[in-house]
Design a protein that fits this description.
The protein is an alpha+beta fold. Helices cover 25% and strands 43% of the residues.
């Protein structure tokens, strides 16, 4: 016969402590995510057309993209610890779903197959998209949350061009 050296009270206390730690972890995640959640309207775009052109996007699609007024929406699923960055216009919606620090396969908005990874530094989410195909371009997109704004800086690896878009949180 196996004799337990732990009393029922000790097991219950450990279970309660584990539950409390899980709750604290979840509370911390929700509080951290909360300040980023919401919908943001684009209020400015600098060098966006040049950025799209450098990626090889055709003129018709560039004109449609630069004429649109996208809404950027941030959501977070606490159960799966998955972020969602959704950008929507009248013509198209694109969603970036990710877990921080985990590599995933993605089809970029301009059609490139990429290996992507999103990391977080302070109030910035840094997305690196490494092109899978030889000859295609890799990109880095930094989304910095400052008060009621998101400043999105997009660069192409190996190119000096910087595209900056600013989004303002909806009231």
């Amino acid at each position: 016969a196996v004799v337990s050296t732990q009393s029922t009270g000790t097991v219950a206390k450990r279970s309660l402590i584990r539950t409390h730690l899980n709750f604290l972890h979840l509370s911390k995640l929700i509080k951290m995510a909360d300040k980023y959640l919401g919908k943001y309207d684009r209020v400015s775009a600098d060098k966006y057309d040049e950025f799209l052109k450098e990626l090889g996007v055709n003129m018709l699609l560039r004109k449609a993209a630069t004429a649109s007024s996208p809404v950027f929406e941030v959501t977070y699923d606490t159960d799966s610890e998955t972020w969602s960055f959704k950008t929507s216009t009248m013509l198209k919606s694109m969603e970036l779903k990710f877990k921080l620090n985990e590599e995933f396969d993605e089809k970029s908005p301009d059609g490139r197959d990429v290996k992507a990874k999103v990391t977080k530094e302070g109030d910035s989410f840094i997305s690196i998209q490494n092109a899978v195909k030889e000859g295609e371009k890799s990109t880095k997109i930094v989304r910095e949350f400052k008060g009621d704004e998101v400043i999105q800086t997009s660069t192409i690896v190996g190119c000096d061009l910087v595209c900056t878009q600013v989004f303002k949180k909806q009231a």
